[in-house]
Amino acid sequence: MRILLALGALLLGVGVAVCTVLLHSYWWGMALGLAATAATLVALPGGWGRAPFGAAWAVVTFVLSMSRAEGDFLVSGDLSGYLLLAAVPAVLVAGLVGLRRRQDPAAQDGVGPPLARP
To answer: Is residue 115's pLDDT more than 60?
Structure first.
């Protein structure tokens, strides 16, 4: 089941990244792409759900931002292009931060490290 979740998140990351790169030159496309990315990162569970999405989104966005041998490019050197490129490490970190699942607070026994005293 975990493999299917990871594969689905990977494909979703590729799809959202391609759409974000293609529409980032429009203000509504950039807003929609970043909102869809953030909503997906929040909705996916930690562990094998969020990490493949973040990694796929970052890799696809980075690869599509490179210029081709013919001189063509998809990400221009303007404000929206720089904002998209600045989102790449943020999405990658957000995907990897959730790699470890949070423990259930009810399952903890209340014993922890002592608090530091001033």
So the answer is: yes
